[in-house]
Amino acid sequence: MRKTTLAGLAAAMFLPAAGALAQDRPVLTIYTYDSFTADWGPGPAIEQAFEAQCACDLVWVGLDSSVGILTRLKLEGPATKADIALGLDHFWSTEAARSGLFAAHGQNTASLDLPGGWQDATFLPVDYGFFAFVYNKEALANPPTSLKALVEDAKGPSVVIQDPRSSTPGMGLLVWMQSVFGEGAEAAWKTLSPRIVSATKDWSEAYGLFLEGEADMVLSYTTSPAYHRLAEKDGRFAAARFAEGHVMQIETAAKLKAAPNPELADRFLAFLLTDGFQDKIATGNWMYPVKLSAGGLPDGFDAPLPADAVRSVDPARIDAERKGWTQEWLRALAR
Amino acid sequence: MLEITGLTLERPDFSVHYDLTAPDGGFTALVGPSGGGKSTLIDLIAGFLAPSAGSIRFRGQDLRPLAPADRPLSVVFQEHNLFPHLTLAQNLGLGLDPALRLSAEQRRVVDDGLQRVGLDGLGRRLPEEISGGQRQRAALARALIRRRPLLLLDEPVSALDQAMRRDMLALIDSLRRQEGLTVLCSIHTPEDAIGIADHLVEIREGRAFSVTS
Amino acid sequence: MAAGAGPVKTGSPGSGMAGWLPGGAAGLALLALYALAVMGLLGVAGGPGGFDPLDPYVLSILRFSLIQAGLSTLLSLALGAPLALALARRQFPGRDVLIKAMAIGFVTPVIVAVLGIVAVHGRAGWLNQGLGLIGLDGGNYLYGLTGILIAHVFFNAPLAARIFLQALQAQPAAHWRLAAGLGMPPGAIFRLIDWPVLWREAPGIAALIFLLCFTSFATVLTLGGGPAAQTLEVAIYQALAFELDFQRALALSAVQIALCLLLTLGLSALGTRPAEIDAPVAEIARPDRAALATRFLDGIVFLIAAVILLPPALAILLRGLSPKGFSILADPNLLCAALGSLQVAIPAGLIALLIGFGLAWTTRHARLSGHPHLARLPALAASIALVAPPFVLAAGLFAALVGKANPLSLGPVLVPLVNGIMAAPFVFRLVGPALDRVGERHDRLCRSLGIQGLTRLIWIDWPAIRRAVGMGLAIATAFSLGDFGVIALFGGQDFTTLPHLIYRLMGSYRLAEAGSTALVLVLLIGLLFWLLETLIAGRRHA
After folding, report:
1. Residue C277's pLDDT band (boundaries 50, 70, 90)?
2. How far does the CA of residue B91 sit from the closest CA of chain C (Å)?
3. Model ipTM?
4. What is the DSSP secondary structure assignment for residue C229, as one 8-state letter?
């Protein structure tokens, strides 16, 4: 933690990044989302690992959400001091690419342990996860076995989800529903709507509500039960497997065209695909690393879903249809 | 007559101990420095404060066990005697029925009261629409129509200018004679009481000293 | 300005500048900042343009915003007025503390309060558990309009009660003696003394609460439950933070400001006084205390108020005291966040004081020097500051300034600034009436003796207004301590506040720690409140 005093702030306001003056080491500034950089997230360990090999100072700037990173960068424009944006979801790749803010990553993505492989030249995959509805085994004995079942069973479990406009899982569910129901998605939302307890602004609220007992299921990740098992020694939670397959979320990183330290940024991008970074992901971020280290996943961590259980959707299609899908969602839920 | 014997109370600044009598049907003026205890005495007689010892007797009746509204007296304060959102007639009406449900007869009494203090026809006015002197006269009228034999006035003329002070005191005195009231009036400027009061009591440091009788 | 050239009413030459300057400067500063923000947002390449104001979704948001604000206001008044009456009549040990606590409830951070409300009213909450014991199930009634109303009443009924209480207790002591001396029964006392006061104060209080509920953000966000229950403020936030549709954000902000100003102007045209949040409270002895009817009624009112207001507060307390949560106390992040909170809140409080006081000063000067119509302008500025969405201001200023300064350092400057502006209207409403009161009392004397400007402020006004100033500073600072909207835009690892920390803890499944941090936040607010009021306001009264 670096304390900043008010006086120091006033002085530093019109100076270039204070860190660079204070030490002679170059500073790598990474914009990411909050929970990545928290003490209990992967951030601090990654910082240590990278600083050990780069003779530089890694500075995290934690923003309130993945979407928030893009918003902030757009607001800052070419004046930005960010070198790298870490944690942009691939749902927003096309839009982010359109902004013209990002440069090509120049890394080799041929041999990643990522279902479906990776083609994009600007955005580098960092980790991935699968959306799933999580529930408490003691409270819900017979969870639905498919998305259709969840939606169509009028006496089914209540769910808490997230708003697709502000939350990645929310958008993930939107994509999932579109992928499964197609034209019938709006009707499906309407059918599900009475059992939606709340569509919260982001994942943490939704999960908090779920843990409070407000709903039977919460839209989260397949890895959430692993957190409870490993970190809290609590084995009551499970993720429901749906027959139609699960939509993936891939978090990416990219270098800014206006990066003050482009070479350092490149080194970090290379570091990203190495063990030094990737082996902090599983129990740090509770997601799957895109490159498994020799030891594989930690004990107790579920294996990733097999390829046939994954539902992939073209990001370009998501980008084109997103607004329309959101309007549908709004219409269906605004009873 | 009003007999106060050994009336005692501890106040923040001093303790008070009053012994005095006021002649029946007479005009007794209380004079003395500010903060000397004039208001305290009136509050005690009216029943707004409870004494720790002593007695208050009016025409032989012990007033102490009675609630303020049950005592045979009316009080007129220095200001804030009228409720600002009620008309004069309504303010006076409160003296007859504190729930303001007046019969036609009572309304006539109100009009009569206003006339007697020279506020004829002003019944519909609000207090803010008339002068300070007129407001005090309205308060006096309310005390009148209640027909209580003892009238206490706590610096009723201090907020008025000199001409109005003399007029107001003269009015009080004339009403006293007409109704046979016993009047106890605290006053800040003793010279105004000359010629009107027939009994002067000085209140100083919580003690009463008869000056004339 | 108008000092020499204006109509010769009661203006005095020489005091002109000293009178107009503070408010004029504050008003112009606000104007400049808002203009800068708008330009900043327009300057950034917006997302998809094209805003259709008649979009059915927007209309439904508008409709909902009005409905929830209206209902919240009615309910808050319906609980607040009887509560104020009951408090006016009763004396009991701890009454002063309770009344103080009611003011603090107003500045409780929304996150914290929502945690408590969910614990009580949620599907698995106390109420449903209790109902379950007798075989009933309340079901999921919290998310949606019901939850929003519950939260709004929780915040605003005590506020309404406090304002009503001040007014009820402002009767001169002589009136109560009159009532006693005339033998007024309790019914008449209510009809003739209390009710006119309540009726007179209600519009001003209603306007304030309506505006607060209309622009309510975090509550609607967390308890709204989805698109069916969203307000303009939330839609603006969405447009700004996630859809990157700045044109839409600006357009919606304009709609919000216009609507709210219409309401404020309409009410001020009716001649209602702005609700006075704090006024000196005298010791009075009401004669209707002893009556059986009033004792019974007051008892019922206290019971209802306790049932509605106490459980969430209790829940917050209990949740914060869970042993699992205590681990956060040893975490250096907590200290960091607390310091960050203070770094935001104290400058914000001072900024709010400067702006609010400046506006109040000039309002009074305008009134006293014979330009009552000009007195409306500072009040207008304060109203705009109250209803303009803070994130639009923050994001716009950021966009405008980002090219000129290190973006990472802008946050710690903008967050206090925007919070200060948001809190300025409260300082204005607190200090304004106090200034007016002492002004009316001494204005002629001051003018005849030539006492003006700074001298007048220090020697004449200060003793009378220091209570209000202390209260204003306390509220502004407490508000900023608990703020969560603006910090979300700029918070980070280096720059975090307690609400932000709570949010991050919630974001990583660590709810017990979040609860304890919430308790720390509430305690800090309480401490600051007490400190500021005691130091500045002087000796405490009720």
Report:
1. low
2. 10
3. 0.73
4. G
